[in-house]
Structure formats: structure tokens, C-alpha cells
Design brief:
Blueprint (H helix, E strand, L loop, with lengths): L11 H37 L5 H46 L9 H6 L10 H14 L11 H26 L3 H56 L1
Helix pairs in contact: 1-2, 1-6, 2-4, 4-6, 5-6
């Protein structure tokens, strides 16, 4: 028997929850884009001198800050929960690839997520771990002879870009003092949200492909096990 299917852990519910959280990320990011656009309009009104009342300008500014605060809190909550779910999914995907017969994998289930938290190594190690999972899931017996996937490459590129933009957004917002600096911070935030949506979409594609590949591989292993058992009984 190839692998140990009796230790294989069904990922159907976990995959479903990861999908839900990725959809939630996209929805919240769209809301954030809308909120940022309203803030941009407010900043433009400040810049053009559209306000004739200082009290109204202050009131609109406070309302904007409160709205942005709530959107930011919701976004952070969704990001944290989805991050935990995705890491749990990666762990299980690595584990299941081994049960399906993949041998000599360089990354254990633990290290496939552990490298996300180690400075410097987090730049390329998680990518290599995910590439292993992808290959081992699609061809457990000969995964080391297979080619990498453009989906994994694009996923990691967007991950790097999204993180860079996230850091830039934080630094622009933290250092902003003049009105024009707040405008720049807003624009960087808009671009960051768009990259986050693209990352969520490619992650969704990645998760779906690996889940389907492992499901098909499990069916093949079960079929082979059944045939071997039938031959043993007949013999």
C-alpha cells in the first residue's frame, strides 16, 4: 500500500472554513477600499478648502477616523482568524501528502508553518514548503521529479508584495503629519487592499487545487488497497 491512508486526516471541513475566511478577507478588503475612498474625498475637500465651517470639518474628520478604526479592527480580526485557519490547513496538507505516499519531503508539517515566523527564512522557506506540498499532493510517488507550479510562484510573489505594501502603509500612516502625507498614506493603503484581494484569490485557487489533488490521490490509494485485498483473498 502506498502511504498510510488510515492516518490520513480529512480536510473537507477545514478547507471549507479556509474558503469562508478568504471570502471574508475579500469582502472586508472591498469595504476598506470604499472607506478609504471616502477618506480620500475628505482629504481632497480639506485640501481644496471646501469647508466653510471648522466645526463641520472637525466633525467629519472625527466621523472618518471612527469609521476607519472600526473597519481596521474588523479587518485585523478577519486576518488573524483566517491566518490561523490557513496555517492549520498547510500543516494538515503537508501531513496528508506524507500519508498518501510522498517520501523524502524536506519540510515536516511543523516546519511548513514554522518558517513563517522566523526572520530572513520567512522570505523563501514557506514558498519551498508550499511547493513541496503542491508537488507531493499531485504526484505523491514521484513528486521530486515534477516541475513547480506557476500558481505557487504567483501566490508567493503576491505574498511578498502584499507584505511590503502592508509595511509601507503602516510607515506612511505613522509618519504622516501634513495633509499631503495623509493623502499619500491613503493611496498606499488603497493599493495594499487591492494586493490583499489578489492574494486571497490566488490563495483560494491554491487551496482548492491541493485539496482536490489530495482527494483524488486518496481515492486512487483506496482503490489500490481494495484491489490488493481482493487479490489476497482470491489467492
Amino acid at each position: 500500500m502506498s502511504g498510510n491512508i488510515f492516518k490520513f486526516k480529512d480536510a473537507t471541513q477545514l478547507t471549507l472554513w479556509v474558503r469562508y475566511m478568504l471570502y471574508a478577507q475579500i469582502v472586508v478588503a472591498l469595504i476598506a477600499i470604499g472607506s478609504n475612498y471616502l477618506e480620500y474625498q475628505l482629504l481632497m475637500d480639506y485640501q481644496s478648502g471646501a469647508y466653510f465651517s471648522e466645526e463641520q470639518a472637525i466633525a467629519d474628520g472625527d466621523a472618518n477616523d471612527m469609521r476607519q478604526l472600526w473597519v481596521g479592527l474588523i479587518y485585523s480580526l478577519v486576518f488573524i482568524v483566517s491566518g490561523v485557519m490557513i496555517l492549520k490547513w498547510i500543516y494538515r496538507a503537508n501531513f496528508n501528502a506524507r500519508q498518501l505516499g510522498a517520501t523524502d519531503m524536506n519540510f515536516t508539517p511543523g516546519w511548513s508553518i514554522g518558517y513563517f515566523f522566523i526572520p530572513i527564512f520567512c522570505i523563501w522557506k514557506p514558498f519551498q514548503a508550499m511547493k513541496e506540498i503542491w508537488l507531493a499532493s499531485h504526484d505523491p510517488e514521484r513528486w521530486s521529479l515534477s516541475d513547480s507550479s506557476s500558481t505557487v510562484n504567483l501566490w508567493w510573489l503576491l505574498w511578498i508584495v502584499s507584505n511590503i505594501l502592508g509595511q509601507a502603509e503602516y510607515k506612511f500612516a505613522e509618519r504622516a503629519e501634513e495633509l499631503q502625507e495623509f493623502v499619500y498614506a491613503n493611496m498606499v493603503s488603497q493599493v495594499s487592499e487591492v494586493s490583499g484581494i489578489l492574494l486571497a484569490l490566488i490563495t483560494l485557487n491554491l487551496v482548492n487545487h491541493i485539496y482536490r489533488a489530495q482527494t483524488k490521490a486518496l481515492a486512487r490509494v483506496e482503490q489500490q488497497t481494495y484491489q490488493d485485498a481482493q487479490q489476497f483473498v482470491a489467492g
